[in-house]
Amino acid sequence: MTTMKSDNIIRKYGRDVASRLRECSDEAQMKSVLKGEGFTVSDSDLSAIAEVMKTMGGGLRELTLDELDQITGGTII
Questions:
Q1: Do 6 and 73 meet the contact criterion of CB atoms below 8 Å apart?
Q2: What pTM was estimated for this model as a whole?
């Protein structure tokens, strides 16, 4: 599986798309958003993006600081 970080997602797809991805409830919706914006994404990248978005949406409380740093790339969310 590809390692994704929030700053990589923003850099690759743009802040607006990343914000819309955060609002999606599942991978199918995320794929639809990305496809609608003209992006092609592999299933493994889609799963990695979904995991980051899920974590940013409420799973942060369950992470250690090292895990949080790995997901965010050391940037402040």
A1: yes
A2: 0.68
Q: 13-66, pLDDT tens digit by residue?
A: 998 998 899 889 899 999 999 999 999 999 999 999 988 887 776 655 566 777
Of 47, 44, 49, which is closest to residue 11 (Cα–Cα)? 49
Q: What six digits make up the tokens of 73?
A: 């790339």
How far is it, in rounded angstroms, from Cα 18 to Cα 11?
9
Query: Do 4 and 54 touch, CB atoms closer than 8 A?
Result: no
Q: Which of 62, 43, 49, 44 is nearest to 21 (CA)?
A: 49
Task: Calculate Rg over the CA atoms of the chain.
Answer: 12
